[in-house]
Design brief:
The chain has 257 residues and is of the alpha+beta class. The chain has helices at residues 9-32, 39-52, 126-144, 153-165; strands spanning 56-57, 76-80, 83-85, 99-108, 111-120, 169-170, 176-178, 185-189, 206-209, 212-214, 220-222, 229-231, 237-239, 242-247, 250-253.
Amino acid sequence: MSGIRLKSSAEIERMRAAGRIVAEVLDGLEAMVKPGVRLADLDRFAEEIIRGHGATPSFKGYPNAHDPNSPFPASICSSMNDVIVHGIPGGQILQEGDILGVDCGAILGGWHGDSARTYRVGQCGSEASALLQTTSEALDKGIAALEVGKPLGRVGHAIQQHAEANGYAVVREFVGHGVGRNLHEAPKVANFGSADSGPIVEVGLTVAIEPMVNVGTIHTRADPDGWAIRTADGSLSAHYEHTVAVTEAGPKILTLA
């Protein structure tokens, strides 16, 4: 697989250690995400957990491809309602019925873990709940499609099939990616496309699989801050992600506690 760096078993275990820290953050946020909470407080909690383990936030200071003077300022991405990805946590206050996608990364000993999940804020309506369930299921189906000797495109195909069968749209402009020593490595892992596309999966491949699924259009628009990406029609969006390693025994999730 050209440009793709396969990882040894020992390297995968180092990535798992970083992934456990990310999982601890996301698990801890389950109890914190509630009406009246400021997003900046969630970010502060995440950074304390990460640094408390001797790790570094993967996202804080990450360069902006469009503006070198505007690196990402926080440890988590916090994406409310119609924000798909890359929302900046600040003074925004969570309201009853919101949904909140949180993406978190940590670097430990030079290795990254990267994961995301979308939370319900209090009691959500049926539209939001169904979206979250379908997107989480799509991630599971994408992971299950990661099979040695088969094309990587099976992952995106499985995600797209499940999302669209339930009436949702899959974001095209942002995709999953390889991960390891760098937060973003080859290969790209699309959430759509042909099952027979892409490189052949090998043992040692480590990827971040991350479906981004919208209630409405596939189209997006960027906020003036240069980071947050929203649905073009203002519809709800959900985001789930795991870092996954391909082993002789099949795909193994590295971002679990």
